[in-house]
Structures are given as structure tokens and as C-alpha cells.
């Protein structure tokens, strides 16, 4: 059997593209409208350089930390992403990989696997919630997460409606009917390994979201859930504060890009915030999150845990984020490509790459711990940052 190990996330992406049907890969690659934000999320990391040392380097380096009450072995967490039809085991495979590598994960309320199954694979799990329905429905979803054993909640506020992608949106069916399966044959027959995975599992991607329904209702399809969310009045900060009051553990607000909204999140009771633009799937033209991070971290980093989400593709990106004030980062596409390329082992591969690259950067910078990183470790070009709000 050929060696399935890959040496960078870029290789994982290429392998995932070859392995997955075009529509599945297109859903993962994502990006709104012209893709300005997703491109800037990645390009901005490339604008930052390192300021290395050459002698007196530390013999050992420490990268363990604690985020939202959870001890993790490296400052990289799994970001919640929706229906993971890139592999039959989906979120369960990701949870196993994260547990094997000593880190925590966020589970989307639009995930394809029940929270009970995922948390059995990794108890360091944060349940992510969109505001769908009223307070009663939100309370019931939170109660289920609590009963299942979730150790924290992530409320995501950074998803808006974007219409069209310049490169074309993938065709994703409402559900996998017999007619749809027949329609998918030309696409899947050219991806025999992907087809074999599903045939061997004895299942088909049903594209439902089992963590969203309440009161015994059947699981809606992804697009059905999307419709429920789209028909719900967006939450106010008072709603966020109410939601926080219903949860007595760690509570993250995800989607912060402005200093004033970081402060509002703290006022609402957040114990952590994620500087995020939904991976470029939100309002296209929003600056890269790494450009926004320094001013937000300076303003509120002594009051709340600050994480960064968006554009992280290697351990060097993690180190740059930590040097600019993040406590940890969350990754999305990187692990999905690993999952698509080689299942659970592919996700473990991605996390191993992150770990080894973080370690190499710490060594080159002469830092014995991630806690020692500062902006002085970086070469920051003039005008790099973007300050939103006050």
C-alpha cells in the first residue's frame, strides 16, 4: 500500500481534491463571492516574517496550554464545521484524531453526527450553536449538550448571507434520494476510492443535521436547517447574554472582528472570543483575521481568552498568531482536507504537521515556550494591521 502520509497541508489539499467528487471538494474549499477575504486570510500570514536567532537555542520547547478550561497539548483546536460528507465517519473520525493528539474540538450544530457519538470519541468537546428558533429551542439544544457532557459552548455570530461565488457554487442536493444517487454516478464513478469508502461503510451521505432538532422532531436536512436559521431573527447582544446565563461553563463568542464587539462579548459574559470571519464565507471584503488580531488582543486580551480562526495552514501561522496575542488558533479547512485525503489518520497527520512546525519555529526563534512569544519575534511590515471599532 502506498504511503498516505503527507508533508504539508497543501499536499493534503491536493490529495483531497483528487479523492473527493468535485461538488464535495467545492463545498469544502468555500469562500464567498469574489473570494477576497479567503485569499487575504492566507496571504496576510505570508506578509509576516520571523526574526530568528542562531545560538543559545533551547534544547526543549513547550507548546501545551489550557483553553476554555481544557488542557491541550498544542495551541491548535478543531473549529466547528458543518456536515462533513468528505468521509463516512465525519466528525467522529475528527474527534478521535483530536483526542489522539491531545486537543479539543468544536462540534457544529449543523454537524452530520450526533453529539453523543462525537463526545464518546473526544470528551474535550465544545458545542457550537447558531441562533436558530427562539429561546426555548436554544435552551433545549443547550440542555442536550450539557447532558451529553459538552465542556463548553461556542455561539457563532459571523455567518451572513452571501450570494454566489465567482467560480461557481457546487451542486449540493437537498437529500440523497435514489434519483439523486443516479445523478451523482458520473461524478462519483471517477472517484472510486471515495465511492468504495461509502459502500464499505454501508451508508450514504444523508445530509441531515441531528443536533439541531428539539422536542423529538426529525433531523432536518442541511438546507432545511439553513432555512430555519435564515428565517430566524438574528440575536441581539441581550440574547447572547441570556444564552450565556443558561450555561455555567466556558462560553465562546465566535465571529469577532471589531474591538467594540469584543468588548460587548465580554459584557455579555464571554470567557473566550474567536477572531473570525467564518473562513472567508461571510461578508467578502472583511480583512484577514490576523490583521485584526493585534488590536483586539491588546484591547481585551487581559480580560478574555482570544483565539484566532482563519487562514491557518501551517505551524508557522500558529506561531505568528500567538506572537500577536492569540492564546491558540482554530483550524477548519486544514483538517477537512486531511479528513478527505486519509480519514482519521489524515487529521492526525495535519495536527502532527502543526506540532512539528510550531516546534521548529520556537527553536529558530530561541523560545522555550509558546508563552514567551511576542511581536518582537516577527517582522511586521508597515500598515499590516487593520483596526475596526474602538
Number of strands: 12
Distance between the termini: 56 Å
List low-confidence stretches: none
Major sheet description: 8 strands, parallel
Percentage of helical residues? 40-55%
Strand portion, in percent? 5-15%
**What is the ordering of alpha helices and beta strands?**
HHHEEEEHEHEHEHHHHEHEHEHEHE
**Overall average pLDDT:** 92
Specify the structural class: alpha/beta
- Count of helical regions: 14
**Rg (C-alpha, Å):** 20 Å
Strand order of the largest sheet: 4-11-10-9-8-7-6-5
**Overall geometric form:** globular
Explained architecture:
The chain has an eight-stranded parallel beta sheet with strand order 4-11-10-9-8-7-6-5. It is built from 14 helices and twelve strands. 43% of the residues lie in helices and 12% in strands. It has helices spanning 9-19, 22-29, 36-47, 90-100, 115-121, 135-148, 178-189, 192-201, 222-230, 237-245, 259-267, 289-300, 315-323, 333-365, and strands spanning 49-50, 65-67, 70-72, 76-78, 105-107, 125-129, 152-156, 251-256, 272-275, 305-309, 328-331, 378-379. Helix 1 (9-19) runs antiparallel to helix 14, helix 4 packs parallel to helix 14 (333-365) and helix 13 (315-323) crosses helix 14 (333-365). With 390 residues, the chain is α/β, with parallel strands linked by helices. The termini are far apart.
Amino acid at each position: 500500500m502506498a504511503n498516505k502520509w503527507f508533508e504539508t497541508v497543501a499536499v493534503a489539499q491536493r490529495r483531497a481534491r483528487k479523492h473527493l467528487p468535485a461538488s464535495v471538494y467545492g463545498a469544502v474549499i468555500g469562500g464567498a463571492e469574489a473570494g477576497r477575504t479567503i485569499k487575504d486570510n492566507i496571504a496576510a500570514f505570508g506578509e509576516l516574517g520571523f526574526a530568528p536567532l542562531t545560538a543559545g537555542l533551547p534544547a526543549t520547547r513547550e507548546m501545551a496550554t489550557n483553553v476554555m478550561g481544557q488542557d491541550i497539548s498544542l495551541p491548535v483546536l478543531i473549529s466547528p464545521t458543518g456536515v462533513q460528507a468528505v468521509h463516512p465517519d465525519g466528525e467522529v473520525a475528527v474527534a478521535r484524531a483530536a483526542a489522539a493528539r491531545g486537543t479539543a474540538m468544536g462540534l457544529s450544530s449543523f454537524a452530520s453526527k450526533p453529539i453523543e457519538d462525537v463526545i464518546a470519541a473526544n470528551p474535550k468537546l465544545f458545542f457550537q450553536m447558531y441562533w436558530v428558533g427562539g429561546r426555548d429551542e436554544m435552551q433545549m439544544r443547550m440542555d442536550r449538550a450539557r447532558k451529553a457532557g459538552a465542556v463548553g459552548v461556542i455561539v457563532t455570530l459571523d455567518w451572513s448571507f452571501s450570494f454566489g461565488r465567482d467560480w461557481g457554487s457546487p451542486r449540493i442536493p437537498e437529500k440523497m434520494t435514489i434519483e439523486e444517487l443516479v445523478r451523482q454516478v458520473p461524478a462519483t464513478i471517477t472517484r472510486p476510492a471515495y465511492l468504495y469508502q461509502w459502500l464499505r461503510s454501508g451508508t450514504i451521505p444523508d445530509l441531515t443535521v441531528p443536533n439541531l432538532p428539539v422536542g423529538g422532531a426529525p433531523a432536518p436536512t442541511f438546507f432545511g436547517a439553513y432555512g430555519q436559521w435564515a428565517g430566524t431573527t438574528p440575536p441581539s447582544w441581550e440574547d447572547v447574554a441570556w444564552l450565556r446565563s443558561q450555561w455555567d461553563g466556558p462560553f465562546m463568542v465566535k465571529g469577532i472582528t471589531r474591538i467594540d464587539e469584543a468588548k460587548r462579548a465580554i459584557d455579555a459574559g464571554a470567557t473566550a472570543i474567536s477572531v473570525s470571519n467564518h473562513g472567508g464565507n461571510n461578508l467578502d471584503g472583511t480583512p484577514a483575521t490576523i490583521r485584526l488580531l493585534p488590536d483586539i488582543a491588546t484591547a481585551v486580551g487581559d480580560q478574555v481568552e482570544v483565539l484566532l480562526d482563519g487562514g491557518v495552514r501551517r505551524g508557522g501561522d500558529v506561531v505568528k498568531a500567538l506572537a500577536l496575542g492569540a492564546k491558540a488558533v482554530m483550524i477548519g479547512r486544514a483538517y477537512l482536507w486531511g479528513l478527505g485525503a486519509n480519514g482519521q489518520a489524515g487529521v492526525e497527520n495535519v495536527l502532527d504537521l502543526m506540532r512539528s512546525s510550531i516546534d521548529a519555529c520556537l527553536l529558530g526563534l530561541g523560545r522555550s515556550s509558546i508563552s514567551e512569544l511576542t511581536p518582537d519575534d516577527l517582522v511586521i511590515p508597515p500598515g499590516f494591521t487593520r483596526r475596526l471599532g474602538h
